[in-house]
Amino acid sequence: MFTHQHKAIFPFVDTRTLRTHFQLGKFCESRLREQLPSPIYWIQPERKVLWNIRLVQDYLLNGDGPSHQRLVEEYLSTLEPQIDNFSNQYAA
């Protein structure tokens, strides 16, 4: 699903790792899930939640300001080639 380059730049971690890394409790983690949209900040394959740790860290440090929005745009631009490849593969 994700390229190796994508994983290296914007790694996803499980909830336990996120909570340990940022010393968050369950309440704070659930608040983040409410505040931060999926699938940009977190995804839920099957039964577990995976977090984009780089975006979450930047959000916690800088808030939702212009520099954070640029990082989100950078992340989204890493997805565009994959979306384009998928579209081209199934084009009529």
Which SSEs are present, and which pair or pack?
Blueprint lengths: L3 H6 L2 E3 H8 L3 H10 L6 E2 L6 E3 H10 L3 H24 L3
Helix pairs in contact: 4-5
Q: What would your notes on this structure say?
A:
This protein has 92 residues and is mainly alpha-helical. It has one domain. The chain is built from 5 helices and 3 strands. Helix 4 packs antiparallel against helix 5. The longest helix is centred in the C-terminal third of the chain and has 24 residues, at 66-89. The two termini are 22 Å apart.
Characteristic key phrases:
92 residues, mainly alpha, 5 helices, 63% helix, globular, disordered C terminus
Shape: globular
Number of strand segments: 3
* Rg on CA atoms, Å: 14 Å
SSE succession:
HEHHEEHH
Strand order of the largest sheet: 1-3-2
Estimate the mean pLDDT confidence. Answer: 81
Continuous helix count: 5
Taking the alpha carbons of the first and last residues, their distance comes to 22 Å
Q: Give the biggest beta sheet.
A: 3 strands, antiparallel
Strand content: 5-15%
Residue share in helices?
55-70%
Summary, kept brief:
With 92 residues, the chain is mostly helical. It is 63% helix and 9% strand.
